[in-house]
Amino acid sequence: MTVTRFAPSPTGFLHIGNLRTALHNWMFAKKAGGRFLLRIDDTDAQRSEERFVEAIRRDLAWLGLTPDGEERQSARFDRYEAVFAEMVANGRIYPAYETPEELDLRRKILAGRGLPPVYDRAALKLTEDDRARLEAEGRRPHWRFRLEAEPIEWDDMVRGPQKFDGALLSDPVVRRADGSWLYLLPSVIDDADMGVTHVVRGEDHVSNTATQMQMFAAMGATPPAFAHEALLVGNEGKLSKRLGSLGVEHIREQGIEPEAVVALLARLGTSDPVEAVVDPAPLVAAFDFGRFGRAPARFDEGELAQVNARIVHQLPFDRVADALPEGMDAAAWDAVRGNLERVADAADWWRVVTGPVDTLPVAEEDRAFLDRAAEIAAGLAWADPWAELTGALKAETGRKGKALFLPLRRALTGMDHGPAPPSNARYREFANGL
After folding, report:
1. How many CB atoms lie within 10 A of CB 366?
2. Element spanning 353, H or E
3. How far apart are CA 233 and CA 247, in angstroms?
4. Whole-angstrom distance between the N-terminal and C-terminal Cα of the chain?
5. What's the rounded Cα separation, in Å, for the pair 42 and 36?
6. Which residues, 6+ apart, have CB-to-CB distance to 139 below 8 Å?
7. Cβ neighbours of 227 (radius 10 Å)
8. pLDDT over 50 at 249, yes or no
9. Do residues 232 and 17 touch, judged by C-beta distance below 8 A?
10. Element (H, E) at 94
């Protein structure tokens, strides 16, 4: 069975890049009839907060991404200790005593010689007496995973064949001197224990995957398949700090519907057109990592707003009823929804229906025209009032286009923009309500 996981750290709120990762994990699992798991990576006790855990659950629920199970790393420390002890015993994890300053100096020396900043494994040359002396001085070791000097390869579902040389990589630190865990080893242990078959994450994790492949092997576990997606960029064509702060709360405040977020993010990074569909089923059915390119995926808030408007035009009354003004019924919603960008905009049109309408200044040349419009309107049968009114005014005054419609719109609605001309069936229905 296909099993994916979304593994955020509860050290802050989810941003748009996190949402895309969560969505693609969910879509891939659902298309395969598999399971989508939520794993809270809360090994960082100082920075992890329960309010962020709750926010993660709430944001996923808002998008309709219901996990089939949940794990928390903070509940699995005993398991990490057991694997850690086993790897220390067989020599795959070893203690190192360099300070951050010493390591930084070594990197600078290597860089000055034009060499890659690969750790020299000096810690492996220490004797028992050396380690005892360092610890007597107050030093506590951090712990590194010893990589084998052999090729590391996998066929990435987005990037294609990947190949690294273990001899050219630094042995990664897996545990700090204070005993706290870094991301790499606990993630591998969890993926193996949870039966994760596919890991979907950003391309910034590619080098992590190279080292984690050997960690899976050291555990005797089969590694999952990997899909490393291109990162998001903003309109300016580069990584944007704004994308890192563009969270669900901001999106909701802008009146964006969750269906619009799903519709846009489902296709972001592919050449396929964005489909503004309320039901994600067709997006799930068509989801394919083979459609994703390696070029950065461009995220545009303006495009999200456009998709949102197309979604709003389709939303049924039951879906939006709680967000509509008091008294607004299904008929009124169906009449105005085709002209809205956000559900909240319905309130403006409900004020037009219920009154009073805020009047706009009337141009001198339009005063007589509007007086005549009022006289004609008073005598209409109101079977098709807009067509009758504008037809009569056009015949009498010779006005057409903007000169005919804009003064009427401003007088009737108090707005310069609004529904389309009378060829729009929804507009006729709405006009009848005026």
Report:
1. 18
2. helix 346-354
3. 15
4. 57
5. 19
6. 97, 99, 177
7. 20
8. yes
9. yes
10. strand 93-96
Angle at 176 between CA 174 and CA 179, to 5 degrees: 105
User: Which 3 state secondary structure label does DSSP give 161?
Assistant: strand
Scanning the structure block, which residue is given the tokens 């005026």? 434
Q: Identify the H or E element spanning 162.
A: strand 160-165
Average pLDDT value for residue range 140-160: 97
Longest dimension (CA), the chain: 107
Instruction: Name residue 198's beta-bridge partners.
Output: 225
* Burial tier of 175 (Cβ tally within 10 Å: 0-12, 13-18, 19+): buried
Report the Cα 186 to chain-centroid distance in Å: 24
Give the pairing of strands 142-145 and 93-96. Answer: antiparallel
Rounded Cα–Cα distance for residues 386 and 96 (Å)? 82
Average pLDDT of every residue of the chain: 91
| Of 24, 2, 18, residue with least CA distance to 269 | 24
Q: What is the number of other CB atoms lying within 10 angstroms of the CB of residue 5?
A: 28
Pairing of strands 173-175, 142-145: antiparallel
Helices 258-267 and 16-31, interaxial angle, to 10°?
Answer: 80
Q: Residue 419: what pLDDT?
A: 58
Residue 187, CA atoms < 13 Å, CB-side half-sphere: 21
Helix, strand, or coil (residue 240): coil
Q: 398 pLDDT band (50/70/90 cuts)?
A: confident
Residue 73 near residue 37 (C-beta atoms within 8 A):
no
Q: Are 72 and 105 in contact (CB under 8 A)?
A: no
| Spacing of C-alpha 200 from chain mean position | 13
4 three-state secondary structure: strand
For 279-335, the DSSP string reads S-HHHHHH--GGGB-SSPEE--HHHHHHHHHHHHTT--HHHHGGGSPTT--HHHHHH
* Buried b / exposed e along 264-284 (16+ C-beta atoms within 10 A): bbbbbbbeeebebbbebeebb
pLDDT for position 352? 82
Q: In b/e form, how buried is each residue of 105-116, taking b as 16+ CB within 10 angstroms?
A: ebbeeeeeeeee
Whether the CA torsion 128, 134, 139, 145 is positive or negative: it is negative
Tokens in use for 254?
């802008």
pTM, two decimal places: 0.88
Q: Which amino acid is at 37?
A: L
Do β-strands 142-145 and 151-156 pair in parallel, antiparallel, or remain unpaired? unpaired
Q: What is the pLDDT of residues 67-100, one digit of tens each?
A: 999 999 999 999 999 999 999 999 999 999 999 9
Please, what is the angle between helix 385-397 and helix 425-433, to 10°?
90
What pLDDT score was predicted for residue 427?
41
Of the two residues 107 and 155, the one the predictor is more confident about is 155
